[in-house]
Amino acid sequence: MAGEQTVQVDGRRLRLSNLDKVLYPRTGTTKGEVIDYFSRIAPLMLPHLDRRPVTRKRWPEGVEQPDFFAKALEPGAPAWLPRMPIDHSSGSKDYPLVEEVASLVYLAQVASLELHVPQWRFTDTGERGSPDRLVLDLDPGPGVGLAECAEVARWVRSILSDMGMDLFPVTSGSKGIHLYAPLAGAQTSDQASAFARELARALEADHPDLVISQMTRSARTGKVFLDWSQNNGSKTTIAPYSLRGRDEPTVAAPRTWDELDDPDLRHLRFDEMLERADDVGDLLAALAPRRTAPLAPYLAKRSADRTPEPMPDAVPGAAAGVAGTAPAGKPRFVVQEHHARRLHYDLRLERDGVLVSWAVPRGIPETTDRNHLAVMTEPHPLEYLTFHGEIPAGEYGAGTMTIWDTGVYDLEKWREDEIIFTLRGTTGGTAHDARLVLIRTGGSGEKSQWLLHRMKTEAPRSASSASAGSARPAASARPPASAHPDAETGASTIAAGPVSPMLAVSSSRGAARATAERWGPWVEFKWDGVRAIAYWDGERMRLHARSGTDITARYPELTGEDADLGLGETPLVLDGEIVALDGAGRPSFPLLQNRMHLTKARDIARERDRTPADLFVFDMLRHGDRDVTTLPLRERRRLLESATAHAKPPLTVPPVTDDLDAALTVARELDLEGAVVKDPSSRYRPGVRSEEWLKVKLTRTQDVVVGAIRPGKGERRGGIGSLLLGIPDDDGALHYAGRVGSGFSDAELARLTAALEPLRSNENPFVGIPAADASDARWVRPELVGEVEFAEFTPGGILRHARWRGLRPDRTPGDVRREES
C-alpha cells in the first residue's frame, strides 16, 4: 500500500494518503499496516467503543516525534462520523463516537494510534450514563514489571471473586495490566471510584511491600501502583485492542488468567493480536453486552394483559420460529391499515429478527411523481406479520388494525439514510412489484422523518426522490422570457438577451448521495459568490447577474479591453460564479461584498486592485451558433473544457469529482458553502429550479426580503439595530421569518442605511409578525434581498440564530423561496 487511494469501507468512501509513511521506525510499521490492523480487529474492538466518547493520541509524524492529545474532532473529519458534545470549562467539544469500521479507518488515516474511552456510555437519549464497568490500572514502578503486576492481579481477583464479581485482565501494551469487572449500571462514577479506592487501600494494607495506592511517583520504586482513579467520570483508559504509541506497535491485549501465570509474560504486538484473534475471539465479550434489545421500546409501551398484540421476549429472533420462514429465504413485509386516532398505514420490513417499522399517513405511493411522508416507529416483533384485530381504547395505538398487503421483498440497499427495495405483495394491489426507496430527511431512530418514493422499475434513477419533498413544483411549465421553445423538439433556444440561469434544489446529504449513485456520480463545489451568465463574442465578455442586470462594467478584469482570458474567437455563452479569493485562494463572500455593490468607475478601479474578481465557469449554453442547452451535461462539459482549454485566470473551469462525501470534506476544510450533485444526463433548463441539480450546504443559508428596521441601541443608537425579515409564499405574501442583528460590518451598515432609507414606508409588509417585534419597527418597502446564515427554522417558520451575510443585489424578492434542508 503506497501513495494515495480512495477506498470503499461498508459504503463509506475514504481517501487514504501517505500509506507508506513509517509510523513505527524501529519496526518499519507503516500507516497502511496500521489501517489494516484497525480494519481487521474491528469486529472485536468496536463493541468496546460503542457509545463511548473517544479521545485520541495522534502521532502524524511517527512515534519518535511528539504526540498530541485530541478530544474534539478535527474540522476535516467526515460529516458521517457521529459525534456527541461534552461540556468543559473552555466550552463544549464534539467527541467522536466510533460505531463502524470506516470510523476506525478514518482515525487510523489521521494517525490516531491510541484510542481512550471512559467507563460509561452515552444513553439512548444522549445523556452520560452510569459506569458499566470497573477498571483498575496496575502500573509497575521502577524495578518491577509484568510478573509483579500479574501477582497483584491475582490478589485482586481473589477479593472480587468472593464478592461475586468476574475480573478480566488486559496487558496494556505500555507497562502494566488493566483489570476490568462488569457493573450493572446501578452505581455512579463517584461511587465506583470510591469502591476502587477502598479496594486499593485494602490491598496496600495487606501487601505493603508490593502494592501502593497513593499517586506519589517518588514512592513507587519496587512497587505496583494500583490506580483506582480511572473510574472517575472525567478519566479515560486505553481501549481494549487499541495500539500504543511505543517503540513497537504493541496493543492493549485481552489475556487469559493462565497467560498471566507465565513467567515470561510480555506485551503483544498488533500482528500477534491478529493471529490470536481468530482462535480466542473476544475474551472481554462479557464487558460489551449487546445494546438494549430492539423490542424493548415495543414492550415498554404495551401491557400483555390489556392488548391482543403479540408480546414475545425482547430478543431478536425469539419470534422467528412463531411467524414461520419466508419463501426462498427472502425477508418479509407487511403493510397494515391502522384506524387509530388518525387513519394511517404501517409499513414493516423484516430485518435482523424484528420488523423495522414506519408510519406512512398516505400509504404506499401509487405513482412515481409523489413522495409520501414516513415516520419511523419502534421495531415490532415478527409475529406482527400476521396481526390484525382491535387494540382497546386507552392502549398505545388504540384502534382497528387490518392487513392491507403482505409478502416478501427484494432488497437492493440498506443504509442508515437510504433503503431501496421491491415489495412482492400477495394481493395484487398497489404493493405488488412496487420498487420503493425510503430516504431519511431528519432525525435518527424512532420518530426520524423519511420520504417514501415509488421508483421507475425500468429506469432506477429518480430525481424527485432526492429533493427532500419540496412542496413547490420543480419547474414552471412556461419557459422564461429569454428562452424560446423550438417548434419541433420543444427544447429551449438561447436568445441574445439576458438568460436566467438554471437553479438547484436544496437536498440533504443522504438524499443527494443516494440520487448521485442512481445517476452516476457528478459533484461540483458550491462557490460562495455571485451567479453570472457570461457572453463571449470572440473579443470581449459581457456579464449579466441572475436577475438579468448587466454587471459588465463592475468587473473590468473580466470584461475590459485588457482582459486576456484565452478563450479564442468562437462566441460562447457560459454559466458560472463571480468570486473574490482570499489570501489562501478560497472564495470569500464577505470580500466580494466590497465589489458587488460598486457602480462608479472610480470606486471600481480602486477596489479592483484590493479585491480582484475571478470567474469560475461550470456550464455552457451556446457554442458558436449552436444552442447546446439540449445536450446532456456530460456533453456540455466536454465542449466547455475544449473551448476553455487555453483559458487564463481570472477565468477558471473548476474540476468535477465523483465523491460527494469527499467533496464536502474538502469544502468544509476550505470554508466553502457545500457541493452540488448533478445528473450528468440533464439538459440545461434556463430559469428553472430543477431537481436534476441538488445542492448540499454545509452551512444553512437563506435568502430573505427586508421588510423593516428596528432602531439600534448603545453603539448603534440612531442607526440600524436589527432587520426584520420575510420569505414570500407561492402567492407572494411576505411571511415574517424573524430578525437578524449580528454579522454587520460598519461598511455594511452604511450600505444598508443608504439602500433602505429611500424605501421607508408606513405600511407593514408582513404576514404573521408578532406585536412585540412590530412595536418599534420602521417599515420599508419589501424590495431588497439579503442573505443570512442560520441554525434552523422553528416550527413556526422563524429563523433561529440568524447572522447577516450581505445584500444580494443579484436577486429579486420574486426569487426568494424557503430553502429546504
Structure, described:
By secondary structure, the chain is α+β, with helices and mostly antiparallel strands. Helices cover 19% and strands 31% of the residues. It folds into five domains: 5-125, DNA primase, PRIM domain; 130-287, Alpha-Beta Plaits (2-Layer Sandwich), CATH 3.30.70.3300; 303-460, no CATH class; 483-697, DNA ligase/mRNA capping enzyme (D-amino Acid Aminotransferase, Chain A, domain 1, 2-Layer Sandwich), CATH 3.30.470; 701-815, OB fold (Dihydrolipoamide Acetyltransferase, E2P), CATH 2.40.50.140. The strands form twelve sheets. It has an eight-stranded antiparallel β-barrel with strand order 19-20-21-22-27-26-25-24. Strands 40, 41, 42, 43, 44, 45 and 48 form a seven-stranded mixed beta sheet that branches. A hairpin with a 5-residue loop joins strand 13 and strand 14. The chain is globular, with a radius of gyration of 32 Å.
